[in-house]
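Notebook, student rotation project (T.W.).
Task set for the rotation: take a protein with a known small-molecule partner, predict the structure of the complex, and write up what can be learned from the model alone. Partner molecule chosen: NAP. Sequence and SMILES entered below by T.W., checked by me.
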Amino acid sequence: MRAIMVGFGAVGKAFAEMISKRSSTLEKEYGIIPKIVAIVDRGGALINQQGLDLQEAISIRHANGSVAGHKTMGHRGATVMTVINSVEADVFLELTPTKLPDGEPGLTHIESAIKKGLNVITTNKGPISAAMPSLLELAQYQKVQLRFSGTVGGGIPILNFAKKCLTGCNIESVEGILNGTTNHILTRMLDAGISFNAALKEAQEAGYAEADPSYDINGLDTASKLVIMCNWIMGRRVSLKDIEIEGISNVTVEDIIREKRSEKAIKLVGSIDENEISVRPRSIPFDSPLCVKGNLNAVVFNTDIAGSITVTGRGAGGTETASAVLRDLIDIKETLLE
Ligand SMILES: NC(=O)c1ccc[n+]([C@@H]2O[C@H](COP(=O)([O-])OP(=O)(O)OC[C@H]3O[C@@H](n4cnc5c(N)ncnc54)[C@H](OP(=O)(O)O)[C@@H]3O)[C@@H](O)[C@H]2O)c1
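Predicted structure of the complex:
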């Protein structure tokens, strides 16, 4: 399978390393011989229609700041559109940063790739939360696959679990801790008794929070994941404007200590039920399965016939999220064989 990879950051590089290490298993167990034929970053593109040497691509980017620094195969200033229109491929991997609420430029990248007849895998929640129904319709019209399992929960198969494993159940409501950065901050405020600002600074210094963590803190990151879950799992046409959103910047250490006395922790919880879709800080009993610590994520699905089921794990990280890209790639291959 020939792939164009747009975005060569934490997820892109981890995916490149993963498929290099697993090439024989992928071929033997799934019949996949993945070949990355182009990588695009903000500096330009690296292209080899025969398949790139991925270790070399990582070294070139490290040495030059862009994959386009390759002496013979680098194309400085080449854009995503040029690559889509000039490189032969089967799959397009969209791994650029999330921008909310419009999802650009990822949304244009994905639409263009689908129109060109490419199957698409993305971990970028921006385009999917902005335009999932129309993207799915376009993909169906173009007879290609669109997969986005890494957009919610990173490597935790939250979307696949709900869609594939809860078949036959009615999911009546969902509650989730879907943002590892805010969970880490709230956990440090609880365990170390430090202020919101001190916990945020500590998380940034330790590399758990981005330099601009505003989508995490203001609840927009969690809200965009709820939009994806509502549309994909529950078949409800919902957009960001339908969600009540409150972030965690007003949570004080005093609030947290008060709740701790009654054996509860304040968490940023995204909830979906028939009356409301919301993101807000809520007090969760210590013994609830939702009360996970640090940068963990957890989602509770309340169903009519299987009861309440919790899925938990690390909701972020380059390697974990790249595992979702690999899962989607295998899924596309298996779908194409059906
Ligand atoms: N990292 C995680 O734990 C995680 C978890 C779940 C979902 N995600 C999502 O996965 C996506 C990728 O995340 P990441 O952590 O890998 O991001 P990242 O480390 O910031 O890397 C982003 C990459 O995209 C490239 N890029 C940015 N704008 C571009 C453009 N217009 N055209 C071409 N390339 C462009 C960047 O180029 P330069 O290298 O030139 O800057 C960089 O290589 C994001 O949408 C993120 O929200 C990430």
